From TrEMBL:
Entry keyword annotation includes Coiled coil: no
Species in which this protein is naturally found: Vibrio agarilyticus
Molecular-function annotations in GO: hexokinase activity
Any single Pfam family the record assigns to this protein: ROK
Assigned keywords, A-Z: Carbohydrate metabolism
Protein name: ROK family protein
Amino acid sequence: MIVGLDIGGTKIEGVGLVKVGETGEYNTAIVHREPTEKGCYHDFLDSVLKVIDAVASHGEIESIGIGCCGSVSTDGLMQGANVTVLNGRDFIGDLRQRIDVPIAIANDADCLALSEFQDGAAMHAERSCVAVIIGTGCGSGVIINKGIVTGLNKLGGEMGHNPLPNYSPEQDGAPVKCYCGSMNCAESFVSGTGFGRTFSEKYFSADSKAIMALVAQGDSRAIAHFDLYCDQLARTLANIVNFVDPEIIVLGGGMSNVDAIYPNVQAKLNQYTFNKAAKTKIVKNVHGDSSGVRGAAFLHLL
Ligand SMILES: [Zn+2]
């Protein structure tokens, strides 16, 4: 059994997956959740071990993959995690002292890419795919030659913090400074948060769900804004095509559940690609909220 853990701000989810014959697909043998203990690092570590123990009671563990906020710095310590008790800790080292199986860690976008590449929306891609999360923020997981691109600075896939391509204030709204320090990051426009922000600046305060409800009611302002959003997303994804040219692009995160995105963005994509006849398909993820925990379990398979 291979095990995936998804560590979030409110809960830790563990899953045990078992291979089904030789099809390349996996069945879920057990799912176990515990609340994330954030009071201190040792309580946190205990809650992680509790999930692993519960999963281990359903079969022998071959490996553990962890999808987690933040990243591991070059000195092995956690950084940038919103479960802040983790930061500055040798989390993986501490787990390895307690559990004698291979342990790996990656961020949520990498896990989404892996999950969909292994047995989801990108399972027919041979060597490459890019998974883009459009949710609270915007990040991506890049698989090239069947391997995740993390990079020298652990910045592989951080396309959400490139500037929005072809940005103009007339079209896209007033310049905006991102929390990362850069101006007009794509994330500020194409994340679900960004979609709500740009609409609220132009018309009245509304979040992405409220705007899509207005679109369904035929509100012309919401329809025009959704069309602009799809154009912004097409520009952002065309940059991925021009740079990496993956076999397929899979979308995840809250905005990926808006079905009208796919035909709309697909129709606009080739306005911005270098070759105007690009065949790249933009598709919805298959595994939804389970992508994080499933992708984590697959970390050892690449
Ligand atoms: Zn940024």
